């Protein structure tokens, strides 16, 4: 192994130690003590206690519900936001990406304190909504309040995760999919490939005009009847 690779591995050691101490070691500690009880020693007594306790089962149920709904709302909003960012002006896109990057790191105690100030029992927004008669009461520590809190935290993370995927999609990929008979509703195409050809008795609509010569050649292979007089053309 070359000297450069040894130096790279040496630089990786602090990160590996940090990762083991704060990630792997706590996980191993929890796994070992989950099958070790002070009363009965090694066994599944702890799991038996959990699944026979209504308190623990209720806590698990509420945790799963909060996780499911906050993840669902967060991913839906993040998908719509990431797709919209792909279509807007670059300045606005850069600003929103920078804002999402900043808010994704705004978590933990500062985020909890900010929500207590804004949406707590005596939070500023809560009081304003009560005075306006929009709400009668709001409990940030209820299931609904925690769903709102976690949804807010997951939206910027979802945008940072999904936007690069949308940004990596290329327009010529869509045209190539259309060439290979991928479905696209008529009248929704834009750009140079906006003319559709539909062969007699065949579906779906296929792009055949307004494409580059190599794309037209692929279209003739995928749909021989397209462009030879058998198909009808629509703008």
Quick overview:
By secondary structure, the chain is mainly alpha-helical.
Which whole number gives the mean pLDDT? 77
Helical content class: 55-70%
Following the backbone from N to C, one meets helices and strands in this order, namely HEEHHHHHHHEEHE
E-strand count = 5
Strand order of the largest sheet: 4-3-5
Q: List low-pLDDT spans.
A: 189-212, 227-235
Terminus-to-terminus distance: 63 Å
Percentage of residues in strands: 5-15%
The DSSP helix count reads 9
What is the gyration radius calculated from CA atoms? 28 Å
Overall shape: it is extended
Q: Structural class per helix/strand content?
A: mainly alpha
Largest sheet: 3 strands, antiparallel
Overview of the molecule:
This protein is mainly alpha-helical and 235 residues long. 64% of the residues lie in helices and 6% in strands. It has 9 helices and 5 strands. It has helices at residues 3-34, 45-51, 54-87, 90-104, 109-119, 124-131, 143-167, 171-179, 213-222; strands at 36-37, 41-42, 195-198, 206-209, 232-234. A 3-stranded antiparallel beta sheet has the order 4-3-5. It has a two-stranded antiparallel sheet with strand order 1-2. A hairpin with a 3-residue loop joins strand 1 and strand 2. Helix 3 packs parallel to helix 7 (143-167) and helix 4 (90-104) packs across helix 7. Residues 189-212 and 227-235 have low confidence and may be disordered.
Could you name the key traits of this structure?
mainly alpha, two-stranded antiparallel ribbon, 64% helix, extended
